[in-house]
Known about the structure:
This protein is α/β, with parallel strands linked by helices. It has a single domain, classed as Alpha/Beta hydrolase fold, catalytic domain (Rossmann fold). 31% of the residues lie in helices and 23% in strands. The protein has an eight-stranded mixed sheet, with helices on both faces. Helix 2 crosses helix 3 (100-111). The longest helix has 14 residues, at 74-87. The radius of gyration is 18 Å and the shape is globular.
Amino acid sequence: MKTMNDTGCVAVNGLNLYYEIHGSGEPLIALHGGLGSTAMMSPILPSLAQHRRVIAVDLQAHGRTADIDRPMRLETMAEDIAGLMQHLGLDRADALGYSLGGGVALRLAIQRPQAIRKLVLISTPFKKTGWFPEIQAAMAQITGAMADLMKPSPIYAEYARVAPRPQDWPKLLDKLGALVRRDYDYSQEIGSIQATTMLVFGDADSVPPAHMAEFYGLLGGGKKDAGWDRSGMSAARLAVLPGATHYDILTSPVLPVALAQFLE
């Protein structure tokens, strides 16, 4: 990994939002999944930072960003990222998000369509029913009551290592649980996205292939044969990585190649 160029916190919407910058070049915002932090993105940061100024962020109540007295919502976390962009003097940037971070990146591209040039969504459905039923059932069980049960996990160990207030762990679980239990469907807003978008899933993801194809179709992909001259090809991309699950997709050896081809 390249040497970290910058790290800091910025006051945004009442949060003290933590970010770190790796590499140099065109800006790329990288957003982690639920209960994670910037460390979750470490499998792909080295390759991304070879050609990009990667701005990795700890979302509300995650990592080094302490929680505040507001609900956890994708829409407000997207505005946090917009505030960070303003702080860094970025009128436009590319955005990449995984799972929860993908939801935030998706909302950012919807709410601030001119701010995002390229968008990468990894293991991210556009509606709640895009998750397999058993995943929705598991999400429904996330509450602070799980806090002690999860303390032996690597996820908690990383949280306790960096969080400003490790005692907030049960609150994070409560707020995340409330977020993922909310119903949502962004199908009517996908058309407002101006960013060239790539969807990335594992072939054994928590999202069924039918939903992957539906999302790709909403972006204009998969409508017809591309033709021998590729004139019928959509600008959107869909990558389904072989042998990858929702839980290990960031470590797939195919992922950095797919990202490089799209971003560059």
